[in-house]
Amino acid sequence: MSSFSRSAQQWATFARSWFLIDARMQPPGKIATMCSVRLQGKHKPIYHALSDCGDHVVVINTKHIAFSGNKWEQKVYSSHTGFPGGFKQVTAAQLHLKDPKAIVRLAVYGMLPRNLHRRTMMQRLHIFPEDELPDDIRANLTEELPQPREIPRKLSEYTQEEIDAFPRLWIPYVAASRHLLKTEFPLTITALSVLLPLNNVSSGDERHFDSCHWYLCTTSFWFKPKKFKIRTPIIERCFSIKGVGLWDNFDSEIKRSKSLSAFRRNAKIIMRPYDIE
């Protein structure tokens, strides 16, 4: 004999739960996917397309969502009133400044099935730009869903023990043109087109380069790729640090390229200009 009555079992089966999702630093598409599953009730074994068995979803911190790349300026939201000249088009940044809840609402609405249940399911979606919730909604919450994307911690959030336990990586040095240039970041020519003088590199320099790591030397000055103009006499040679005997056979490792596009296609090179003032 069951410990619960039939009515209690049926009530527990069809009861609507309230899920909480924190959208801080999360992509709207990932948040919309989680909301769509809960609003439709697809996470339940009793799910059916013709039954309305979805749960409530509460999304907070929609004001602090994140996009990758340049989607804030490139992603466009369009609408039309149906009348001549009624076409409206705004970027994601403009829409977010006007309404911090609009992007998440449109993302969830677009992931729900195109039927008459969609508006009913949207009524169970509760969006808040900040983490402040009304008391009645806060009292109904049953579970907080984990964030789909892990937020990296700030340097100030690490303890001193974690900082001390972080492995110390070696930093290679290259002697070039009366200066000792220190390679700070493992960059490639496709990531940042910074060109530095690497003249007079002899075989007696430090041999810290590994065949699996590609480095681009940096100094105190930087050049933006779009504003820096390439000149033919400056960039004529490049050398690849792939291989064991690079510094022993430096002259034999120098390779010539026919065009600048060949430099950019090959990410595993260090560009070697003659001089940059």
Which key terms come to mind for this protein?
277 residues; alpha/beta; Ribosomal Protein L13p, Chain: A; 2 domains; four-stranded parallel beta sheet; three-stranded antiparallel beta sheet; 11 strands; disordered C terminus; Ribosomal_uL13_sf; Ribosomal_uL13_bac-type; mitochondrion; ribosomal protein
Word description of this protein:
A four-stranded parallel β-sheet has the order 5-2-1-6, with helices on one face. Strands 10-9-11 form a three-stranded antiparallel β-sheet. The termini are far apart. The radius of gyration is 29 Å and the shape is flat. The longest helix is centred in the N-terminal third of the chain and has 13 residues, at 28-40. The chain has helices spanning 6-14, 28-40, 71-74, 92-98, 102-111, 118-122, 135-140, 160-165, 250-253, 260-265; strands at residues 18-22, 56-60, 76-80, 87-91, 125-127, 143-144, 173-176, 179-182, 235-239, 254-256, 270-273. By secondary structure, it is an alpha/beta fold. It contains ten helices and eleven strands. The protein folds into two domains: 13-149, Ribosomal Protein L13p, Chain: A; 168-277, no CATH class. 25% of the residues lie in helices and 16% in strands. Mean pLDDT is 70; it is low at 171-277. It is found in: Mitochondrion. Its main location: mitochondrion. It holds the Pfam family Ribosomal_L13. Keywords: Mitochondrion, Ribonucleoprotein, Ribosomal protein. It comes from Poecilia mexicana.
Write the layout of secondary structure elements.
Blueprint: H1 6-14, E1 18-22, H2 28-40, E2 56-60, H3 71-74, E3 76-80, E4 87-91, H4 92-98, H5 102-111, H6 118-122, E5 125-127, H7 135-140, E6 143-144, H8 160-165, E7 173-176, E8 179-182, E9 235-239, H9 250-253, E10 254-256, H10 260-265, E11 270-273
Parallel strand pairs: 1-2, 1-6, 2-5
Antiparallel strand pairs: 3-4, 7-8, 9-10, 9-11
Helix pairs in contact: 2-5
